From TrEMBL:
CDD domains: ABC_cobalt_CbiO_domain1. Residues 6-238 form the ABC transporter domain. This is ABC transporter domain-containing protein. It comes from the Bacteria. Keywords: ATP-binding, Nucleotide-binding, Transport. InterPro entries: AAA+_ATPase, ABC_transporter-like_ATP-bd, ABC_transpr_CbiO/EcfA_su, ECF_ABC_transporter_ATP-bd, P-loop_NTPase. GO terms for molecular function: ATP binding; ATP hydrolysis activity; ATPase-coupled transmembrane transporter activity. Belongs to the ABC transporter superfamily. The keyword Transport applies. Pfam families: ABC_tran. The keyword Ribonucleoprotein does not apply. One of its GO terms (cellular component) is ATP-binding cassette (ABC) transporter complex.
Amino acid sequence: MLSPIFEVKNLVHSYGAQIALKVDHLTVEKGEIIALVGPNGAGKSTLLKILGLVEKPTSGEIFFKGKPARPFSQVSRKISLLPQQPFLLKRNVFDNVAYGLKIRKIRDKQILREKVYKALELVGLSPEEFARRPWYALSGGETQRVALACRLALEPEVLLLDEPTASVDVYSAQLIKRAVLKAHNLWNTTVLIASHDYAWLDEVPHKTWHIFKGHIFTDEINFIWGPWQIVDGKAIKQFRDGQKLVFNAPYKNIDNPVAIIESAKINITFSPKKVGLKMIIKQVNSEINFRELKIVVSLEDISLNFKIDEDLVKKYELWPGNPVYIELPGQVDWI
């Protein structure tokens, strides 16, 4: 059996006294596309930098294909990280994209040209139009796509993307999505993407991991935020339309507690019930494997997602804008 492309054991990373990431055990299989979602400061960027071998964890072990991996070691050349705010060298587009190839001792002009042009085409930039354009003559979306082309030219085994669509236009975001999926198809590239662009993410990953307070949840889960009113051992969240959420309150005194519910424990019903929370369907999306549908429902600041059989969607007309009734368990986990 092949080793996972990444394995993380007993990892802790701190900035001073603040623990930014704590992972007991985690594996990433070859060829997976994984979305990392969570609020600012949750640990998404930290995880990407550690897996990208550009930052050393405070403690713990990182394995790449079954072998220990250390920051800036030779194996890091198989991994490409696109940071949240990438920068370009003060050169033209061709020289920016060719830079990493030249570091890897590729000097043949014809091979360089072929790889640079292919990478630009992958991100939707015409080589004839953009190859000789200077770095300062690019829009924000074009700069982001050139930065991605710099990584794709290396044909990486692993591509790590930190907020790749932040501050870019919708057109550039779609071209970035297309480039990521093409890279995956061409080279079976393993991709991890941290993003707040949930609509964009719904169309890309095989699975979604949630990161919160430095902890990683690899199962299908949902977060429900406060504020909560604690009354007689119950945590109550009141909505403007008079509906309430009532859970068993956390046993421990947790500041600003957040409820965690596994998607599998959520029931969807199609007629009003006293125990059902009336919510509105926001999205119905095909998973990337096209075997299941993901449905997203919302009420004010709450958004829940879970998978559902395609036949139910058609039978009960579960389309965006329609109401549904959601049953949630009374007992939840708190963090």
